[in-house]
Design brief:
There is one protein chain. By secondary structure, this protein is α/β, with parallel strands linked by helices. The protein folds into two domains: 218 residues, Alpha-Beta Barrel (TIM Barrel); 72 residues. Helix content is 47%, strand content 12%. Strands 2-4-5-6-7-8-9 form a seven-stranded parallel β-sheet. It has a two-stranded parallel sheet with strand order 1-3. The two termini are 26 Å apart. Bound molecules: flavin mononucleotide. The site of flavin mononucleotide has 18 residues, from helix 9. Flavin mononucleotide binds next to helix 9.
Length: 323
């Protein structure tokens, strides 16, 4: 997730939590050959990896640039690259990047033909249902099926929805029926019970991508895979405390001055405060903090009084709306 799951976040995450099989790096915009510099690729340099397999992600709509970047990624040792056709942000969409490609099957066809024909890496894509219209993905699927994509990750919302409302599992089911290659489900997995519902409805799916839910509850993969006993409150707050200290000390080493470090850590708490009993107050207080000194005192105070209260199981009626 761009801006949040940096290499520093990913390294620290894997030191403290288990259950993840693979990571996808935040998207990198495609650029022309002369602008592919080490800074652009720094986040995914193998020496910076967490130890888990990593799939780099590109966003763009120029086949030549895409292919050249795939060569640069192959040189770094990557065999697979994901193409982001799902980013919902308007400035990106307007340039026919991210989800902006979804309403243009002919354009995507031409791009995939070149990229799949010339890329030294396998290509996977990440899509939404459409920009405004859910039928857009359905029209795109025959194009996707023409290429040997290593997987299609489907987030069943439209781009205009951004992250509002609930995921549309019926629309996902229709897309899943039509897609011929491997499919990965993505969207709203923020608790084990929702994972189980998706898994029960689509038992053949073995690939799940987690986003915001995992940032809020880093134990989620452990819970899903039964690696941990959920509900051990003290232990979980202690583990979050250790993770936070690890990440903070990393950012203090590589960023200069209080402000950049505070910026990163405030983003961290956007998600990480949610399952803490006093998380709302913590986040409110942190927003106004201007110095690392006061930041540390506030976090220490709140974590020492926090209880771990992850998202409760929704009532059956609201789950039914999602299914
Ligand atoms: C702040 C933020 C940054 C994101 N950055 C990326 C990104 O770089 N690449 C990507 O494929 N998805 C990105 N996403 C989308 C998530 O990967 C995911 O598809 C979306 O949040 C829905 O899944 P979730 O409900 O599990 O979070 C981002 C989402 C957010 C909120």
């Amino acid at each position: 997730m761009r801006g949040i799951t940096t290499m520093h976040y990913r390294q620290a995450f894997v030191r403290h939590f288990q259950g993840l099989d693979i990571e996808m790096a935040p998207f990198i915009p495609t650029v022309s050959a002369d602008r592919i510099n080490p800074k652009l690729l720094r986040d995914i340099l193998p020496e910076n990896n967490s130890g888990l397999p990593l799939i780099p992600q590109l966003i763009g709509n120029k086949a030549n640039d895409f292919v050249l970047m795939c060569h640069a990624l192959k040189d770094l040792g990557y065999d697979e690259v994901n193409w982001n056709m799902g980013c919902p942000h308007k400035p990106i969409r307007k340039k026919q990047r991210g989800a902006g490609l979804l309403p243009h099957p002919d354009l995507v066809d031409g791009l995939l033909e070149k990229v799949c024909g010339q890329s030294p890496c396998r290509i996977s894509v990440k899509v939404r249902l459409g920009v405004a219209d859910k039928a857009e993905l359905q029209k795109l699927i025959p194009v996707l099926n023409r290429y040997p994509l290593s997987e299609v990750i489907v987030h069943p919302r439209t781009a205009e929805q951004m992250y509002d409302g609930s995921v549309d599992l019926d629309a996902f089911a229709e897309a899943y029926e039509l897609l011929e290659g491997p499919v990965c489900y993505n969207g709203d997995i923020d608790r084990r019970s929702f994972y189980s519902h998706v898994h029960e409805r689509f038992p053949e799916i073995t690939r799940f991508m987690l986003g915001r839910g995992l940032l809020a509850n880093p134990f989620l993969c452990e819970e899903i895979k039964n690696l941990t006993q959920s509900g051990v409150t003290g232990n979980q707050v202690e583990r979050i405390t250790a993770f936070h200290e690890d990440l903070l000390s990393h950012y203090e080493q590589i960023l200069h001055g209080d402000h950049p470090v505070l910026g990163k850590m405030k983003e961290f708490w956007t998600y990480q405060s949610k399952p803490l009993s006093n998380g709302r107050q913590l986040f409110k207080k942190l927003k106004k903090t201007q110095t690392l000194h006061s930041y540390k005192a506030i976090v220490r105070e709140f974590l020492s009084g926090a209880q771990w209260t992850p998202a409760p199981c929704p009532d059956p009626a609201s789950l039914y709306n999602c299914l």
